């Protein structure tokens, strides 16, 4: 008998009393109250967790990116439109940068897959404008462009838009820890500066 | 570096007594648990549907337990289809061997680790060190515990018993031996301590070839593993190395992708008291060109099937390891976690540890038998639990098992047996009342004095004297 069969047999033995399996009640809210301004709520909640928020439109985006980047060098995934970074010091992750090289780059610019207003969360799904996961991890500054049509109200709505087959990273504010006396301190291993550019 | 172990610790009353002598520990714990209690109430107060989420969370987990074989096979099939390898481990020795074999096959001499309760439970670090493999804990609190040659004392914040000054001293003293030293002018500012950890660990992240993690959830219908964290050390371990090994208790499943909508709300608000934790990683098998190209999932029993066998006690397997029950527990807040002698401290530990160690199947050792008594049964843990585990109910249930297994004091057992026999028959009770009333009915109060356990209980408790005659006797006189 394999270990697997043995464990499954033990489980079946443990369940001899045949506990009832019923569909769970679903009385919680899957959406926000109608009329909620999800863009405004997202901006507030992300700012609550020390993300820096910029509001702009498509025409103003390159200038907003340049202002947030300052003079820092940015790694960019292959799917970022070149117009966004005209005149900036950028390094394309194509072919993929070596980990140690990536560690030396100060910033990274990406898009996003979906954003959640209720929790102030941005979700990346490694799409062409977001790149592989390491890209948004090693640089200390993350500029993340979120279109207003990507912002949903709740966690439930976000999950419905996401593809579980893709590697997903949910980001709610910059890296933080509560390990010292249970007080929140921003900035441990991930990017210590998170700028979210909301594009209407 | 040698890893301390919980093995061979004395029973709770004696470890608790030791812990209570430590004023610094009590001050650190009192401050930290008060902070997180208030924050949690604010975080859950924001959601008008919090109670509905708890109901659903409990129901989903009960459904998982009822359909466990089917869901585990579904998870295995989906992880395998996505390029992962699934291993099954009966116990700690199985799991530790599987992990060590994977590390050795890659000729790696070190691993980086994401904080994981399952690997603490099986004492993986000690097992890997015995094989000559260096293990680097990367969660800040785990790093503090590891560098301090210490034992964890909290599920979420294993170094909760340390304050900032103690942490600075540990970093200054120990970091150099493990890698990059702490800056000589390190202050005890939390931001400076976090920066020191960032610098110390960065090199280890960049060079590590194998990472070991636990998992918060595994989605059966997609094969997705979910890890919630705050610092980014989890993302480092889950993304940069070539090989990833995840050790997961068999109860950690959720049936469907959509079920995450419940747990991704319950867990962060209950554990760190945030709307959402800073980082959550989700991955399904292996993704070419992104992250580890070899993924192993170790499904761990280690006493879970024995826990599942008890219809009352099995609700402990709903636990999502948030630690809210620790933070609200008046016993935990005073003794700290190390007094419980197990990776799982506090109220959940008091019901989970004895069951994982087999209390449902056989007589357990004295330390394990003492755990269900480490509670005042106040019920704050049940109120706080996001998956509605009725911890007091299970505590009382396990206490009965301990007594059945002939633990406890001989005198106490004899007294209880005598009381049981007396209350079993009306005639015996009436005789005892007549006898007691005649003998002691005139006393104003009763003080029992004696040695040992008599003093321990009655030293501070006077007995109410019995009535001269029972109500029944009095009634009979009036009617006849």
Describe what is shown at a glance:
The complex is a heterodimer of chains A (200) and B (480). Chain A has 200 residues and is an alpha/beta fold.
Tag the structure with descriptive keywords.
heterodimer, A: 200 residues, alpha/beta, Rossmann fold, six-stranded parallel sheet, four-stranded mixed sheet, 5 helices, 12 strands, globular, B: 480 residues, 10 strands, 10% strand
Structural topology:
The complex is a heterodimer of chains A (200) and B (480).
Chain A: H1 3-14, H2 38-48, E1 52-56, H3 61-69, E2 74-76, E3 90-92, H4 99-103, E4 107-110, E5 114-116, E6 121-124, E7 141-147, E8 151-152, H5 155-161, E9 168-171, E10 176-180, E11 183-186, E12 193-199
Parallel strand pairs in A: 1-12, 2-3, 2-4, 4-7, 5-8, 7-12
Antiparallel strand pairs in A: 5-6, 6-9, 10-11
Chain B: H1 12-20, H2 23-45, H3 50-66, H4 68-81, E1 85-89, H5 92-105, E2 110-113, H6 117-121, H7 124-130, E3 134-137, H8 140-147, H9 164-178, H10 190-207, E4 210-213, E5 217-219, E6 224-229, H11 233-239, E7 243-249, E8 253-254, H12 260-271, E9 279-284, E10 294-300, H13 304-308, H14 324-328, H15 332-335, H16 346-356, H17 366-370, H18 380-384, H19 391-404, H20 410-424, H21 426-440, H22 452-458, H23 471-479
Parallel strand pairs in B: 1-10, 2-3, 2-4, 4-7, 5-8, 7-10
Antiparallel strand pairs in B: 5-6, 6-9
Helix pairs in contact in B: 3-12, 9-10, 16-19, 20-21
